[in-house]
Amino acid sequence: MQIEHSKDSLDSKIAQRAALTAALCAAVLALGKLILFLLTGSMVVALSAWDSTMDMLVSLVNRKIVKFSRLDPDNNHPYGHGRVESIAALGQGCLIIGGAIGIIASSARQIYDSLKGNVTLDFHADWRQVAFFVFAGMVSFYVTKMLKRNGDKLNSPALLADSEHYKVDLVTNIASGIAIFIVILFGNPILDPIIALVFSLYIIYGAFGLVKTSINELMDHDISDEIKIKAKKIIKETDSRVLDIHRFRGRKSGYKYFFDFHVTLPDELSFNEVHIIIEKIEDSLELEFDGDVIVHADPSSVRMSS
Q1: What is the pTM of this model?
Q2: How far apart are CA 273 and CA 127, in angstroms?
Q3: What domains are there in the chain, each with its CATH number?
Q4: Which of 30, 31, 59, 277 could make a disulfide contact with 22, Cβ separation 3.0–4.6 Å?
Q5: How confident is the model at residue 1 (pLDDT cuts 50, 70, 90)?
Q6: Residue of 302, 288, 167, 173 lying closest to 228 (CA atoms)
Q7: With contact defined as beta carbons under 8 Å apart, do 210 and 92 qualify?
Q8: Where are the beta strands (DSSP E) in 90-189?
Q9: Is the CB of residue 190 less than 8 Å from the CB of residue 114?
């Protein structure tokens, strides 16, 4: 048990360090993009600045979330605190959608006013801005990979959701550089809000994926077939006397998996032998999935269909 707590503590520190690194990178990019927006008035730059600002705030929140989610179970939370990561990911998705809708509204207004001749778009673009977004894209690419690597390693929904944010930020950085390049090339500022509107729709599409995944976890949605197959393979390989597996159920809460199922064992086994097999199965699954496992043994004389 002490080893398990030590592992959780180490994982928590790794996750917090990853979230802090992401927040610092996002803060630098958000400040640079804000300055660019004030200088250029570009809606694409405004979209990218909003996205980086949200990334910074979310990463700072995630630093606390990943620590809280790995606290030991208590009397009020006997299954642990893992779902706080799903709640955080849901909030992140909603924030991204809200910001993108605001950019869509502003872009649509600029396009409408420009086409009606009500206003002349004032967009000052130069090659230094394109160079900045090339740099911003490289930073976003690094942060995306770093968060994805740690999110997969620690099975953290919050870090994986943050990775999706920075993936969107990578796209908006590329879009911003392309938009400024096109405006420089063709000298038509209306292309800027048009590109911003298109990429805002892309951001909303990606954010809906985060919202859906978070809601599924909060609603105890069934685990993926891939995880089921892997878990059942581990169970069968644990002991050759496991005849079958049935009534298998699983769910995910934050970074932890919860499994409960029945196994059929030969009638002639003693109670002690059954107990040893069950413990081996539980230990194997807990080690592989950092999970919580409940196993019920059935004698082969009353074998149930899977």
Answers
A1: 0.64
A2: 73
A3: 2-218 (1.20.1510.10), 225-302 (3.30.70.1350)
A4: 59
A5: very low
A6: 288
A7: yes
A8: none
A9: yes
